[in-house]
Specification:
Blueprint lengths: L3 H21 L2 H19 L2 H11 L3 H9 L4 H4 L2 H15 L4 H14 L4 H17 L3 H14 L6 H13 L1
Helix pairs in contact: 1-2, 3-4, 3-6, 4-6, 6-7, 7-8, 8-9, 8-10, 9-10
Amino acid sequence: MFNKNIKLVIAALIIAYAVYQFIEGNIGNGIFLILLSLIFIFLYFRNEFILLAFLKMRKQDMEGTEKWLQKIKNPEASLTPKQQGYYNYLFGIIFSQKNLTQAEKYFRKALKLGLNMDYDVAMAKLSLAGIAMQKRRKREATTLLQEAKKLDKNNMLTEQIKMMQQQMKKI
């Protein structure tokens, strides 16, 4: 919606007006304005379109996810590097059902830019391992599976990893 720098400027202006309200004696207005500015500060670190895309992804609505992601114009300029990582991660998940070459490109870019959660990094590496396995690159798939296994601390991906290892033995 807004550029990331505009969000910070809006937050600073709201905080300045909140301080003015505190000086005037309107404590309730000042507190409300401080809380309002926190929304813009939160949206600086978490892009609203990416949040909405994740909500669509939870409902397994890939078309809706892609629609929200396409609303982000010029992601290199309007997103922080971690947000760009999640932008590419979501596109990688979408394209993993359509075009594996494109999905691989998006997952690699997401890993290069960085993801906050170890689970997301493990999921991206697991997906890359699956793509490498389908393209008959067994050595690369094995290393990616091992890295995903190390990152999966909560054992949420153990079944998928075991299934991929069994499939790898057949190749």
